[in-house]
Design a protein that fits this description.
The protein is mainly α. The protein has helices at residues 3-14, 19-32, 38-48, 50-60, 74-88, 92-95, 98-101, 104-110, 120-133, 135-143, 146-154, 162-177, 180-186, 188-204, 208-221, 227-234, 240-253, 259-276, 301-326, 333-364, 373-399, 406-421, 427-437, 450-462, 466-475, 477-489, 500-514, 516-519, 526-538, 545-559, 564-568, 575-593, 604-617, 622-634. The chain is 71% helix and 0% strand. The chain starts with a helix and ends with a helix.
Length: 637
């Protein structure tokens, strides 16, 4: 039987005057019209008309009627209307029409009531075809509550089914086209439910849909605006989603997949750790609810694979960056974009290694471990190798006279994290590069700051010994350290997340001052005058004894090498600054003179530095001496 006469018969019915004829024509069309036969579909669409399609859909929803309907066929009308709408929208010109865009809210209204219906797949297909065909389509999908519908239904869909694939693609479309910030702020709870459903797919599937799930999870969780979603996930009573993600990442990293997919897995791992903490790297790898597998995957497998993959990624990226920066042509915008992309990927890999260093440090500190000895050794060895590669990259930058770049700043940060735990590691390389690392600036910095902050944990430890102080003194690196402390506590103080960094900076400076005679640094340099003024500013409005005694100790050690007359002769030091230092020394001595509590007794050493120093230099600072003695007499001290 030839198809053409049957199509012509259908078209005659569709163009009939009665609704019964049109309904019969549509039913016939669904029987023989091929999905790929766009020409025939177009003729059918033109014949039936948009007004009848709209009435048919609304009748199926219980909002209208077609002539001849007695109210008994509502479900059939709804299914027929959705089926033909999806078929028509396989033609892009029809899908992008205003008539089809206007039906998105209606189809979204249908879906929650028809979650178990056989035509739910056609609903998703219609939404995807219309939304991908024009900007108005995806905007209507978002504004009409598409995120709500997807979040509520994805958890109910059968794993791996075509409807789930369509749902994943719809969610990806919304995230790619709409404002990520608005989505995250408006739908954090819905997105967290979506993460839980998609994570299940990511763990269970072993086909191309697994990668769709990976990309969607990365898009939701790795955005700079993802904080509301992260918080919603932390508050979920069921955190099985984190196990699903861990299982899925292990499957990606331990199999032969494209490098781009492994990178996406690392991005997702970094986001998961940001939400759960470093302990997420170690956990159950079983997701079946039945019998345990004969060869269960060890709980530390994720840690091992992420560590190894990050090591390889860093080595490759640093090699490629070095080539692009120092050898490839710098005249093309393509090169600049390539460098930026690789720097962003490098930041992810570096962040993972830093988190692994923290995890290993906590485990070594006795916080319990599920890591086997072999995994522990492999991870440590991998970190050592990575640090060696990073130091070579920094050496290469030094050799090329480069000291500015976010990649260099990130390199210093990971070095600082590593050396904070093992300050004597790579001793010769670090010694040779230390003064250079203290000059490194990020792209947005006008002078070195963050690089020095990253190195303070290591600097504080190495300056406990004379040899470490000599390294800073001989290179002039102590000036960078003092300048950084001034930025941290002075009138134009830099905002830092970790206030403990200020005390590390103070400890480093104090270590240098305590050993000044052995390392021969001059304290009459202008930078120490600026430090005195910054210390006075820092303590003006605080009553914290730690801050007062720390600042007082540093002032006292600087006063050992100068006099009041010398300070007042300095062009950048005025009497007002000396008056502020009067208050600082007085308050430092008063804090130490009070009956110290058990907690404050740990500050006894700082108080002794202030008091002993005062007895040595008081006669050279008559203004301070007279003020302190007068105030102590007034208060009967």
């Amino acid at each position: 039987m030839e198809q053409s006469p049957s199509l012509e018969d259908c078209l005659k019915l569709l163009q009939g005057e009665r609704d019964e004829q049109r309904l019969a024509g549509l039913l016939l069309v669904t029987k023989f019209c091929s999905r790929e036969d766009h020409a025939s579909i177009r003729r059918v669409y033109d014949a039936v008309g948009v007004r009848f399609l709209d009435r048919l859909l609304r009748t199926g929803m219980g909002k209208g009627t077609v002539r001849g309907d007695q109210g008994h066929n509502q479900d059939a009308y709804l299914q027929l209307s959705v089926t033909v709408l999806a078929a028509f929208c396989r033609i892009p010109e029809i899908a992008s029409s205003k008539d089809m865009v206007s039906k998105i809210p209606l189809v979204l209204e249908i879906m929650p009531k028809e979650s178990a219906s056989s035509f739910l797949e056609e609903c998703y297909e219609f939404l995807l075809l219309v939304s991908t065909s024009c900007e108005d389509g995806v905007a209507s999908l978002y504004e009409s509550g598409g995120v709500n519908v997807l979040a509520s239904q994805m958890s109910t869909l059968r794993s791996g089914c075509h409807t789930m694939e369509l749902a994943l693609r719809l969610a990806q479309l919304i995230l790619s086209k709409m404002s990520r910030e608005s989505i995250n702020n408006e739908y954090p709870l819905e997105l967290s439910k979506m993460v839980a459903a998609v994570a299940r797919e990511f763990a269970l599937l072993h086909n191309a849909l697994k990668f769709e799930a990976l990309h969607l999870l990365s898009a939701i969780l790795s955005s700079e605006h993802s904080s509301p979603v992260h918080e919603a996930l932390r508050l979920m009573s069921d955190n099985m989603w984190s196990t699903y993600i861990r299982v899925g990442i292990v499957a990606i990293l331990q199999n032969r997949v494209a490098p781009a997919e492994k990178l996406q897995a690392l991005i997702l791992a970094e986001s998961s750790i940001s939400i759960i903490g470093e302990q997420w790297l170690i956990g159950p790898m079983t997701i079946s609810h039945g019998q345990e597998p004969q060869d269960p995957i060890p709980a530390d497998r994720c840690l091992l694979l992420v560590s190894e993959s990050a090591r390889v990624e860093i080595a490759v990226l640093l090699n490629e960056l070095a080539y692009l920066k120092y050898e490839a042509s710098k005249d093309t915008s393509c090169t600049a974009e390539n460098i930026l992309s690789k720097q962003q990927n490098l930041a992810i890999a570096f962040s993972l290694v830093e988190k692994i260093i923290k995890l290993i440090s906590n485990i070594s500190g006795g916080e319990g471990s599920s890591i086997s000895e072999s995994t522990f050794i492999k991870v440590i060895s991998g970190i050592d190798e990575t640090i060696g590669v990073v130091l070579e990259y920094i050496q290469d930058a030094k050799d090329h006279g480069q000291n500015k770049g976010d990649d260099l700043l990130a390199s210093v940060r990971i070095i600082g994290s590593y050396l904070a735990e093992t300050p004597t590691a790579c001793e010769e390389k670090v010694k040779g590069l230390l003064s250079y690392m203290l000059t490194i600036e990020g792209e947005g910095e006008s002078s070195p700051f963050y690089a020095i902050c990253f190195l303070f944990p290591m600097l504080c430890q190495i300056t406990m010994k004379v040899e470490g102080c000599k390294i800073l003194a001989s290179s002039g690196g102590y000036r960078a350290v003092v300048e950084c402390l001034i930025k941290l506590i002075g009138p134009h103080d830099h905002l830092v997340e970790d206030k403990g960094g200020i005390f590390l900076a103070c400890d480093t400076v104090m270590n240098l001052l305590l050993k000044r005679e052995q390392i021969r640094i001059r304290l009459d340099e202008p930078i120490f005058v600026h430090l005195l003024k910054a210390l006075a500013h820092w303590t003006e409005v605080t009553s914290d004894p730690t801050v007062l005694l720390m600042a007082g100790s540093i002032c006292s050690l600087i006063f050992d090498a100068t006099s009041e007359a010398a300070l007042l002769s300095h062009p950048n030091f005025e009497l007002g600054a000396l008056n502020s230092l009067n208050q600082l020394i007085l308050r430092s001595l008063a804090v130490g003179g009070q009956g110290m509590s058990d907690d404050a007794k740990a500050l006894e050493d700082l108080y002794q530095i202030v008091a002993a120093g005062y007895s040595r230099w008081a006669d050279r600072f008559p203004h301070i001496k007279n003020f302190v003695e007068r105030e102590l007499i007034v208060f009967g001290k």
